[in-house]
Amino acid sequence: MPDPAGKWNAVLVAAFSNVAHLLTHYCMLIYPTAVLALEQALGLSYGELISLALAGFLLYGAAALPAGALGDRWSTLGMLGVLFFGLGGSAVYTGYAETPVEIAIGLALMGAFAAIYHPVGMSMIVHTAESRARALGINGVFGGTGVALAPICTAFLSDGFGWKAAFWAPGVLALATGGLYLLALAAGRLDVPSVAARTSKPVSTRAIWQAGVVLMVTMLCMGLVYRVTSVGMPKIFAVRVTEFGQAGALGIGGMVTVVFLVQGFAQYAGGVLADRYPPKLIYRLSFLLQLPLLLLAASLFNVPMLLASAMLVLVNVAGMPAENVLVAEYAPPNWRATTYGVKFVMSLGVSSLGVGLLAAIHEATGEFVWLFAVLAGLSLLGCGATLFLPREAHEPASLPTAVPSVSERACAGQRRYKTRLRGSRRAGPALK
What we know:
Blueprint: H1 4-28, H2 31-42, H3 46-50, H4 54-62, H5 64-73, H6 76-95, H7 100-114, H8 117-128, H9 132-161, H10 163-186, H11 205-240, H12 248-276, H13 279-297, H14 302-318, H15 320-329, H16 336-349, H17 353-365, H18 369-386, H19 406-431
Helix pairs in contact: 1-6, 1-7, 1-9, 1-10, 2-9, 4-7, 4-16, 5-6, 5-8, 5-16, 6-7, 6-8, 6-10, 8-16, 9-10, 9-12, 9-15, 11-12, 11-14, 11-16, 11-17, 11-18, 12-13, 12-14, 12-15, 13-14, 13-15, 13-18
């Protein structure tokens, strides 16, 4: 019989998880657009102001490892609650900041709490989804929506109500969502059932180490390209897209939003492709296709720059579901949240050093030609590294089997007893 309670539990868990993904990416991309208003408010240069976000972006990755470990050892549901209240509270605090130091502290706290989502959320998805890559792609649509909404909403709030409102509004929304989450949790409407490990072929220790080393390199390359382009895009458009005149923060934010709207579609499409074809192939193509786009972007302006940026974002994020599937294939089931924590230390934490690279190159040259050249080199390195990934060692993963409860086992035993009793009654007259 269908289980309505179990179905609604799965719907609620997915809903809160997807909203958390959206809020995480939205909050982490408030500052790159708000900084355009802060240049006038604080009288500091772009390089000085964007550097204030470095600690937050580093913690966004570095704190993923302890967050994943706590999810494995304590509770994924509990960690998601910490995310809602921690992220919302730190965003509201940043909105009250008055000095560069206070802004840096607020951004650091936002990065630390935002780090919770990816190791915890990814682990929940790969444990419960029938189709890992497709489910990761759908989840990525929500993350991509957060990325797309952040620039335009931040610009609108900054232009209309001041830069502080750009932090207050999403902070209050995260706190309100956290309140609903606690109510659902207290009412027993949320649960992550225990599941048995997926069936898969054994993976040799050598293959695990080989994949681990290669993925460390590729995840760093992919993360650097994504982090630098997403953080730097508002300023890149302010310098390169002048065909529409002085668009202001709202116009620039709108252009960035248009570019990142393709991200949700790209994540879903990448997930579907990684289900149909070897994930390693999709991952390699993502690196290969973004290489010429980065080289073109180094010399493009106005509408061609917008188009090249949209294509760059599309091929970059299309490879992310395949990357997450490859990580899951080599991660022990009981350590998946921790393993994803290690992944996001590389792809979000260490790659955040690219924010310093962005600031340094702009301060030295006032332009971004050399920035795109460096990113193209990283794409070439990542593409070459995928050639050393071991052959896929797993069969397509099956849906995990839920561990039956005591009542379910009792009911099943009773049904078997009644079946045997009916059979013996039917057989009785024949035996006589």
